[in-house]
Amino acid sequence: MLKIISTITMLLGISSSLFARDLPYGMIKLRETFYDFGDVPRGTTSSYRFVFENVGKGPLVIQGVHAACGCTVVEFDKTKVYQPGESGFFDVKFDSTNFIGSLTKTISVATNEKPSTNRTVTLKARVTSDLVVDPPLINFGDVRAHTPRTESVVISPARPEAFRITELVFDRSKFSVTEAKRPDGKIELTLTLADNLMPGALKETIIIKNTSDHLKELPVPVRATIIGAISVAPTYLEYGSIDSLTPVRRSISLSSTKEKGEDVVVKADRVELFLNGQPAESGVVDIKLDQIPHEMHKKLVWIEIKNKGRAKGSMHGKLYLTTTSKEEPQVTVDFYAFLQE
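and the corresponding structure tokens:
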């Protein structure tokens, strides 16, 4: 009797597998996969609509559209099911505020096609500006905790006589800013870091509100790595594409910054996840840590991520690690990935 039941179960499994294999799926065909915006004034937003058709034998669902950076926003119908022969579109908006010069951006399109296939479209633009910022990014580099540091940035407007700064918007708990107009019409800003910053990566932006033609709010990034008792390198991880079958590993290096040094042991405390810009449950992925002694007072920590929940789309996460250091009991690591089946 058990043998008969086992045989029936096996036959049912084979037939359901064959049935699933023969199910018709949709297939996306993009009318075009490249668009050039041409010359774009910095501070403006440009839009384009990509049109596609379902050329498959079954229904087509757009499960996610992933842009590599926040400068590009994609809008599409997340609930629409496209029948064979039906057309659709997704709109792309490119914000040129944080760019200057020629650039190329790629957008990935995830669908329910079988086998799973990555479709991409490419955008190109040449961003021009009537404001020159030198340097374009204020980088303090490595700074010991509780140590003040000063850096400067110079703004050169195309029409100095008509340009003025109306307001500086920034986090005053992180640094101070002084403004000085030079005889040549250029404006110099001097930044001084606060002496009470916590260890870790400092990622801030000064918004310079001004009277220019296009870039009314000029962003200037501010970066620094505040060195405490533990140094983490790199400060964030890029995992690329992660499917539901193959986990992906990346590593960080943890080392003591003390003169005598100390051996640091870490363990995963908690993780914050965002999928397609929305908060996600931590169970969407499986995260494993593997610690390997590397050099004296330095440890290599491998962080493995697996797409546990068969989720799809752009993921950003922050991993909180508890350490054995009394001076720095917790460190964080940001990570980015694109989840696919």
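(Above: one complete record from the training split.) The chain is about 5% helix and 60% strand.
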